[in-house]
Amino acid sequence: MQIAQVIVDVPTRQTNEPYSYEIPANFDGQVQPGMRVQVPFGPRKVTGFIVGLTDHSDFDGKLKKISGLVDLSPVITPELLKLSEWLAGQTFSFKISCLQTMLPGGMRTKFKKKLLTDNQTKAAYPEIFHGENEINYDQQKFDNQTIGKILTLRKADKIKVHYELSNHSKPMLVKAFQSKLTPTQIDEALATISKRFVSQSRLLQILKDQRDLPLQQAWLSKKGVTSTTLETAVKRGWVDETRVRRIRNPFLQPVKKSYPLALNDDQQSAVDRINRAIENQANTTFLLEGVTGSGKTEVYLQAMAHALKTGKTALMLVPEITLTPQIVGRIRSRFGDQVAMLHSAMSSGERYDEWQRINDGQAKVVVGVRSAIFAPLENIG
């Protein structure tokens, strides 16, 4: 029997320790620390965070079972679980309060979960998706066997989970098209199309080059593919129409790519020492001294690049919000779309989307003020 250690959402001194709950057989092997669950607690049901798994309990009586899953994958990383434990001890705070602080504001209030899938999975599991590419996930409407199937599909990356917040901070879904053709079929279609149908030829060539990706209509339009061509492609069975999530971009201005600068002897010495600490996984503190314009930021950038090269992530904290856009511009010019920004001047929708990008592993570098310490980065260098 597998047992979950759960911090319940009952912020009192008497409940400030993990409670043991039996994991139902259908969830066995799927439940992970960092996920939120619904559990029976006295006469009611409450939510809580799984903070550990074990195969035994000191409780002599019969354990209650987890009632349902709030999340289908962890929303708190292993590093943040450790940080929450340390934070609760240092600040004399309730453990549940520390854990909730680490989530975007909207996820600490009311939200809906959406399951997004492709046409193949939709067709293979009609009892779950009922012919739709997007469904609401309500744990009370699914039995444990169905939830077990959903967990398996999530683990196999056959479905995507997105949180739709009760306010305006909800995922933006836009029209996209997924190829249904093999490379051979694309070549055959290209051979039969008249030269007059330039847009159709262009679409087929794009599908040939990027066959495995859902392509957003707005992007295809910029490539010269008309809406009429897309309607024709759907009718002919070349593509399936679907919906994909579009990230709200908090970066208003594009940046020109920059490259590492030549370092002077002092800068190189600093970079070498920091890089050695990264390679040795040493928790070492370094103090860089230098006047404004002396090149400290370039040292940061090259150390961050080394961390990324070794498979780690990077977090840069700035003292105040007004400095964030300036610093982010420098970092984005070096690391591009791998950079996420977190601060209170962003809209709740932007903060949610940035958190989602970090949690999904799309953003490896985070820049922000103090609250960015709770970004769901893993393996910080």
From TrEMBL:
Pfam families: PriA_3primeBD, ResIII. SUPFAM superfamilies: P-loop containing nucleoside triphosphate hydrolases (SSF52540). GO terms for biological process: DNA recombination; DNA replication initiation; double-strand break repair. Residues 277-381 form the Helicase ATP-binding domain. One of its GO terms (molecular function) is hydrolase activity. Keywords: ATP-binding, DNA-binding, Helicase, Hydrolase, Nucleotide-binding. It comes from the Bacteria. This is Helicase PriA. It comes from Lentilactobacillus farraginis DSM 18382 = JCM 14108.
